[in-house]
Write a structure and sequence with these properties.
With 316 residues, the protein is an alpha+beta fold. The protein is built from seven helices and twelve strands.
């Protein structure tokens, strides 16, 4: 059974994963056994009741009550058993403990942002304590996304205009991958992240070190912090820094240049233009590109926007 699990499923890293996997294995193994039984019966009847002579007439059999009851009742019992088992797993996966640590999750094309109880925040990496239930309260800034961590066997749609939630408990430290499993636009496949599980004391240390709420680290210049913010907010998913054409215009040599727009006009790429492009990207669409960038109004602070602009200025 372990070989079967290793072939079909990722590692089980949450407290609900084993129950989920046992149900998965039961459904597949019972389906396999039933398939083999049906095929064996078909082969048996083909051989036993094959025509032995040209004059042989197939007897007319109207019905067999015992056989018909059997093939109706056995699948019914099996389906009801699987339903009861599955419903119990569903309740376990949707009923977080009262003492669960709560993290706010915001989805946006094409990144995951996490806000913690003490004001700390992170982008692309969800930091959690080991062997402690964690409840995620999730919403979307734009379109429907779906939060999926295969190692934990959890998946939940993240919908604009409302909150959804999911919970897990990861007993061991380590790292697992987050995917978006709802097609959300051009760079949907790049909307990944990771869950980093810490020991309790390490998690508390991380929270304390990141409680600044998005202020500039003392050891970084504005441009260096801007580069870090670009990585954290997945800006480089759509905008290259080396001239490569991606979903959006490259940033290399862009500051101070004249940019042609889709309406036939041109604009000088200065601080005002860059700020407006970050907060209201649909206001001026660069010629040859689609209006797919989400607005960062309310997502980035003025200080963070200034840092990103300073970084763009360095890309000669």
């Amino acid at each position: 059974m372990d070989l079967f699990k290793d072939l079909l499923l990722p590692p089980a890293k949450s407290t609900v994963a084993d129950n989920y996997d046992q149900l998965f294995e039961f459904v597949h193994m019972s389906s396999l056994l039933l398939t083999i039984a049906v095929l064996a019966a078909i082969i048996y009847f083909i051989i036993k009741y094959r025509r032995k002579s040209e004059n042989e007439v197939t007897p007319v059999i109207t019905h067999n009550n015992a056989l018909e009851i059997t093939w109706s009742v056995v699948p019914l019992v099996l389906v009801l058993f699987i339903f009861g088992w599955g419903f119990q797993v569903f309740l376990d996966m949707t009923s977080p403990p009262d003492d669960a640590y709560e993290v706010q999750v915001t989805a946006q094309k094409w990144l995951w942002r996490f806000q913690y109880e003490n004001g700390a925040s992170s982008t692309g990496e969800l930091h959690v304590p080991a062997d402690r239930p964690v409840r995620l309260v999730m919403s979307s800034n734009d379109v429907i996304h779906s939060f999926f961590v295969p190692d934990y066997r959890i998946k939940q749609d993240v919908v604009p205009g409302r909150y959804t939630s999911v919970w897990f408990n990861a007993p061991e430290t380590g790292e697992s991958t987050i995917f978006c499993t709802e097609y959300c636009g051009t760079d949907h496949s790049n909307m990944t992240g990771s869950v980093v599980v810490h020991e309790e004391d390490e998690f508390e240390t991380w929270l304390a070190e990141n409680a600044g709420g998005g202020t500039k680290p003392d050891d970084l210049t504005p441009a260096e912090w801007g580069e870090q913010l670009v990585q954290e907010n997945a800006c480089n998913t759509c905008h290259s820094t080396d001239g490569t054409e991606l979903t959006g215009p490259t940033w290399q040599g862009k500051f101070g240049s004249e940019e042609p727009l889709s309406d036939g006009s041109t604009v000088t790429v200065d601080e005002n233009y860059l700020r407006e492009s970050i907060l209201q990207p649909g206001a001026h669409i660069v010629q040859g590109y689609d209006n797919v960038m989400p607005p960062y109004q309310g997502v980035l602070s003025d200080e963070q926007i200034n840092a990103i602009i300073e970084y763009i200025k360095t890309l000669k």
